[in-house]
């Protein structure tokens, strides 16, 4: 049964059209239901009741799909007097709040009270119907009573007060399909913009429209074309390249097949009165009393749910309220020292967006009136009083502050091209509107700021991880640029400073459009780099924009001097580069360990600005990037020193020994090839006598490297002084012990070789704690070629002896370090026996083939990379050739 005060049936009326849809119990269905009702009523021409119908439908569908968790059926019925909308769900047992009783809870937070509460407030009639399986809530909205054929009427105005238009008013009519492509273009459009229909049909409207919003922020042209109805200003680029300001009215329609498209009516911007809808006024006092929220009275319902949409709606409503030509809204920074342009209409917003002006300072060229309402009757008399309007042609302006709890949060202004348009009365009206929306704007701004800060934190965490993952200088430079473009800037350049006496060097350039990189790099190479100032924060650098402008001007003048000759491709590149760097450019110092090691330069395209939050994020990034770049520099220097020292510890080359083949393979283990470890040498002592050595110093690093260098150079010096093998090693042992705490024990195989006339070779070897050399005979037998003796660097008194080995033709002497014999795979080790087994397969091979086979066997023995240095020295006496 129906509750008292709730009507359960409508008055008898003829239904002339109906539309129905079902929405699943998911969150996005609420927005889809709103769009369905809005499109349906717009298509029926019931624009006067669209807003109320959308609000009520949104609440009722929310109750069904969100709170009740069931599907919602929405039915729209058109009658002669208005529209009836029914919303049904599958939850009939839910309680109906009673109007006029104690059970009628007016709290909007109650999930089952708000929708019906709004029905009672907004609908002409409403009711609730029950069935065994469903519950219907319906409401009726009656059309306002107006004389037939009259939407609204205005007073009779004197002729001189009527809006100005050309001799013949032209209205461009275009139609845009669901993909944003132009499908119709009338004669007036051809006349206004210069394009014939066949030049534009089939192309995106975005190719010709100069949209006033920054891409990716707020409502763009693609979003506007999907709205049911939209009005506003933008520009169309004519055939001569100039932007023609237009006022447009968009209406979304669908054809008989259900295919949606958008009809666009466009007039010259100064003829906007032809298309501009008058502000919606309440029909009667009862309707006016239904909305008690002053914010919704000014903004309209539903209010935009994003900050950019809210600000854009605010400036458009403020402009219309005071019948201005332009309006703007600026938001204060956290410290209230600057104002940042966030929304404009009637002004080149792409140029002005995020531009900043001081709140107050001495002089007429400052925004000194931001904290109180101000009226400027003629800006020509006070140049620079409102910097935002410089060069725009605006003459009179009224500005008012946005304040929350006495704190300045922004500034709202309306301007006109004529002087003397505004007085204190308009300032009071605008201030009243600003007071209505200030709290909502500040709340939306704080919400956006919180989302931006969360995103910034995630960005910095990811950037830190990436920068910490490399110690390569070039890769660090590339990461710095790729993290800033296009997230923070359109283009980026990194300058590096090698040392305090060096000039900044252009090390890396990146642009979001790869085709612009070469031109940008050429431009920056021709101008002086920015001054390396260590003070933190971003500072503006105008040199790139100035240089690009001058280059474009010179190129254009040269091309114009060619007369009828076709333009060369050079002007296109120059102009494109000028546009790429024509906006704001900032420089951030890269400071690490109290020294400026470079500069990070970020740029925007023509007439664009950075927002303060982006600059703060860039500053955080620059500090992390500077430390990563300096770490990469230090690591590169250390690697260069290490590799240079490593090379100095190895012989520059192997001498040619008559009658003996010699080959060496040396592999240093570990990333960066740590100095120290294994070494080898082969050098001439005197005529027909050669010394050779292969050794392994305990440990790695500089201490081991010192012993390695000592050993190699001492061996050469002592051998050339005529000392024999035991004497050479005994003196080397004493020199190592003299190093004291820096000494390291050393295993060393040292020998002297004399090639003989009969084709053999005589060797005298001393094996001091080193893996024994192996001799391979022609018959395939392998045997040690020396006996083990004490290693060096442990005992003072060493008594070493040398052993003589004769290599016959075809014999091979193989010497290795313990990195070869101690090659491991789990518990298995190659060992001396495994090496000997490999060597038995090398009969008849050259010295180079022997070392290669041994190395291949070592690598195949285990899957893991080697953890120790390895040196392999093979000497072979070749067999004589028989003719």
From TrEMBL:
Source taxon at top rank: Bacteria
KW Hydrolase (keyword) present: yes
Domain PAS residues, every copy: 167-203
InterPro entries: Bact_Sigma-Reg (IPR052016), GAF (IPR003018), GAF-like_dom_sf (IPR029016), HATPase_C_sf (IPR036890), HATPase_dom (IPR003594), PAS (IPR000014), PAS-like_dom_sf (IPR035965), PAS_4 (IPR013656)
Keywords, comma-separated and alphabetical: Hydrolase
Pfam families documented for this protein: GAF_2, GAF_3, HATPase_c_2, PAS_4, SpoIIE
The name this protein goes by in its record: SpoIIE family protein phosphatase
